[in-house]
Amino acid sequence: MSISSMRKKNVHILAIPWPASGHILPMIDVAHQLALRGITITFAVTPKNLYYLNPLKSLHNKTTNIQTLVLPLPSHPSLPAGSENMQDVTQDYFLYMVEALSELYDPIMQWFKSHTCPPVAILTDAMNTTWTHPLASALGIKTIAFLSSNQYIASSIWSYYKEMKREFFNGEMLHNTIESWGLVLTSFSELHTKSFDAFKAIAKHDRVWDVSPLVPVERSGPAAMPSHEVFAWLDSCPVDKSVVYVGFGTEITLSKQQMEALGDGLEKSGVRFIWAVKKPGKGVESESGDQSVVPNGFEDRVAGRGLVIKGWVPQSMILKHRAVGSYLCHLGWGSLFDGLMGGVLLLTWPMQCDQFMNKQLIVDELGAAIPVCEGLGTIPDSVKLAQILADSLHLNRPERIQWMKIRDKALNAAQQGGSSYKALDDLATQISNLTPS
């Protein structure tokens, strides 16, 4: 079925992302596909996260299918002033961000009541469900939980939130996610069919949609280095698949000792590389001391061979460049898919939460990635790391061959008639059939 034939009555939903690029960006990609299928989406964001939506708004500038509800983030005594995104802080501030966002309950309630065509559902990141699910219930509309990580390995999902060890959860986030009217998962069913079916059994309904891989909307951000300079450097690399990209997302911050070991490994390896370094948030204190500190003199010693970028980078586009061959990452689900779509071999350093599940799936079960180390506080052996980095660029590695087979399945799922494409069609159809409260 074509997208044009999907368009029915114009139905409106409210999207509430979790403020981290690994969560906002895949929700934007889903919203783009729903908008193409005739759904109107209003994004509720705070002012500093509005820039993420600019490319999406430009794509739909001839329609009203993409709208925004910009609300100031309520202050929180434990959040540094001006922090509106998890890239501004460390994971230690997760709970405080949830609590601050939950104060948007009343402003959104008032907006809903005054709207001439209010939403029929809230598409909410699972991280927000402690307050968005009760909000949807109070408004008499549906909750559609959005999971941007590999949280549906059914045998492990119940332990995922328990391992967070925060009294705040008490299973509430998981419970509200499972109790949602529908669940949107950023994967494709062929990746692990048994787990997908088991998750539907837990949810006790079939409104579970596997929708990835998605055609990404152009990414934008507060660039640390102009994109044209990054790609000019990559274009200058004479050999395809000869560059290692190193990045740990917007939420992981490395200690000084980890940075030194990583820098030493990169230096010893002799490979070309791009190292994306997260800037520490202002006013953020850490028990581990200095963070995100590039070793003294490192950039001078690797000049020409390596590129250090401090801050936001166009990651998905870098990984698709012909010069990039492997990717050392924390194995967050979004990064995993960026690597898959880029056709680069993953070098895994899982650090928290579902990243260990992702490693179990990709490394242990599928044999499609190379393990480096594990743990948020782990300091890798720089000599071993250097060898892994150099070996990862060999094109005949069995892990790379297996990863490319999985990539072929993912691409087939995204094509018209594929499992993920049909899931998007069904999601749009079922949303269109919802009636206003």
From TrEMBL:
<dbReference type="GO" id="GO:0035251">
    <property type="term" value="F:UDP-glucosyltransferase activity"/>
</dbReference>
<comment type="similarity">
    <text>Belongs to the UDP-glycosyltransferase family.</text>
</comment>
<dbReference type="Pfam" id="PF00201">
    <property type="entry name" value="UDPGT"/>
</dbReference>
<dbReference type="GO" id="GO:0051555">
    <property type="term" value="P:flavonol biosynthetic process"/>
</dbReference>
<protein>
    <recommendedName>
        <fullName>Glycosyltransferase</fullName>
    </recommendedName>
</protein>
<keyword id="KW-0808">Transferase</keyword>
<dbReference type="InterPro" id="IPR002213">
    <property type="entry name" value="UDP_glucos_trans"/>
</dbReference>
<keyword id="KW-0328">Glycosyltransferase</keyword>
